[in-house]
Amino acid sequence: VQLVQSGGGLVQPGESLRLSCECSGSTECMNLMGWYRQAPGKQRELVASIAFLSSPRYSDSVKGRFILSRDNIENTMLLQMNNLQPDDTAVYYCSVRNKESNDNYWGQGTQVTVSS
């Protein structure tokens, strides 16, 4: 499985960003996909996830602000992040579930910084 992320960057509070993740190389790209983030000094946390042909699920911290979508033909996942706040600052990681090991495959990570 290969996960290639794009997007991210530096924005001011209240602005938006979009992250994308393209999965290739395996039928495991049809598994549960998600976005995690890790802020400095904190553990990696799940932001949002979406299973094949299912509705997305969100953490309470981003519900109502982030929108997750998935293209099951292109094996891509988009995270639209609106009304970004400084607490959203983190490295964001795309993931796909490895069913055999019950672990995740990970993208390379992308920095999102929200600062005035």
Protein architecture, described:
By secondary structure, this protein is mostly beta strands. It contains no helices and eleven strands. Strands 2, 4, 5, 6, 9, 10 and 11 form a seven-stranded mixed sheet that branches. A four-stranded antiparallel sheet has the order 1-3-8-7, with no helix packed on it. The model has no long low-confidence stretch (mean pLDDT 96).
Overview in brief:
This protein is mainly beta and 116 residues long. It is 0% helix and 53% strand. The chain contains no helices and 11 strands.
Overall pLDDT metric: 96
Low-confidence stretches: none
Question: How many β-strands, per DSSP?
Answer: 11
The SS-based structural class is: mainly beta
What is the C-alpha radius of gyration, as a whole number of Å? 13 Å
Order of helices and strands: EEEEEEEEEEE
- Tally of DSSP helical segments: 0
Helix fraction by DSSP (H/I, runs of at least 4): under 10%
Strand content: over 45%
Characterize the largest beta sheet: strand count, sense, and whether it forms a barrel. Answer: 7 strands, mixed
What distance lies between the first and last C-alpha atoms, to the nearest angstrom?
37 Å
Please tell me what the overall shape is: globular
Topology:
Elements: E1 2-7, E2 9-11, E3 17-24, E4 33-38, E5 45-50, E6 57-58, E7 66-71, E8 76-81, E9 90-98, E10 103-106, E11 110-114
Question: Which key features would you list for this structure?
Answer:
116 residues, mainly beta, 7-stranded mixed beta sheet, 4-stranded antiparallel beta sheet, 53% strand
